[in-house]
Model the fold of this input.
Amino acid sequence: MSKDVYTLTSPEGKTTELPVRNGTMGPRVVDIGKLYREQGVFTYDPGFVSTGSCESEITFIDGDKGLLMYRGYPVEQLAAHSSFIEVAYLLLYSELPSADQLAEFEESIRRHTMLNEGMLRFFNGFRYDAHPMAVLSAVVGSMSAYYHDTMDVNDQRAREVFTHRILAKLPTIAAAAHKLTAGQPYVYPRNDLSYSENLLHMLFAVPAETYEINEVAAQALDLLFILHADHEQNCSTSTVRMAGSSGANPYSAIAAGIAALWGPAHGGANEAVLRMLKEIGTARNIPKYVAKAKDKDDPFRLMGFGHRVYKNFDPRATIIRDMCHKVLAQNGQQDAPLFELALRLEEMALKDEYFIEKNLYPNVDFYSGIIYRALGIPTSMFTVMFAIGRTVGWVAHWREMIRDPNGRISRPRQLYTGSQQRDYMAIEKRG
Ligand code: SDX
Done:
């Protein structure tokens, strides 16, 4: 019996040999491409728990070991030694850059941070209290109405221009969305600042006074962007791949990813964690909320806990939790009680049989909001911050998908459970 095939036998005894494919690391896959043609059946896997959607060289996660690697480099090493711009280069171009390559890449990003002035008028069309994720997805989608010259997905030069433009302008759009809801004037980017320094400047500078960049805050943001940069075929990245597979322009594909990220089960969880911690209020209320999370009849879940892939600690959560101590020591003592509450909640949940049996650990969203809040970033902007980090991962996957010579439009099938065929009935004959 060959070890490189799975033999599937139908109830009627018809067999199909399904080839096995080996990756560099992680589980092998069974290629079921010919299943429907030979057996007349579809596989069925809502939520894609056991389904690989593509081949990718970008990121690898081992959920049992709590391992996350970008292009083979463990995220802990990149967090300790790299910068977000360097990690962005790595994700996009597969290798760590030379000093000259990094300088050229960073300079290109710095010089594309301004928005077309016409796009700024867009912001005036939103209600003053619009959620910044709604603004972000709308304005990024509108980029396809401004940058016609980078819409040919088959043109390598156009793909490069798009890549640099979207990375450079995302923070500018994000900051403008914040200024809209803060009722403050939009702040133009500065080419003399680093990626994270520029974002802080655009978020918090006001015309009435000079703004001093807080270097601890800039370093914390840079680290958070590294940790959020990519994560295999998560919901929003799969959405970008799906949208891009039809040949849609890349700005629209990224806007689709932003929309998917907004959900509380995904990137919206960091905002939901802060709301949950405020609702819990004090440590003596923790048992009540842990009980609610365990109650099948209660829709409440401990936000920031659990993960489809990690059945061990999310390595990003561990790094962010350690960073909380540093940021709060310098920036946000007033948020120390919130952090203490989060630590107590983690401690009590991880001792609870339910969480142990279901392998529910804190994920990337559990502690990140505490840092954002300590930096003065409003809760409604937390998922926007996630999107700023994740955009480079979405772009890297979009580029990989577009360049795949075997690429096809993504079009899943279904199990139909609706009505049998029936004839139209005139309204006067209906019951
Ligand atoms: C992100 O995919 C990625 O990589 C995402 C991400 C990325 O970088 O892109 O890592 C970012 O989205 C992190 C996840 C943020 N979301 C949350 O923190 C929301 C709270 N967590 C969940 O709702 C849930 O854990 C998910 C959505 C993260 C995972 O859902 P799954 O894999 O579909 O797991 P499940 O819902 O089937 O849960 C398995 C069991 C269930 O119990 P049973 O039906 O088996 O009895 O665990 C329970 C769930 O009820 N469970 C929880 C829980 N999470 C799962 N119970 C209480 N609290 C929770 N948080």
Summary: The chain is about 50% helix and 5% strand. The mean pLDDT is 94. The longest strand covers residues 15-21.
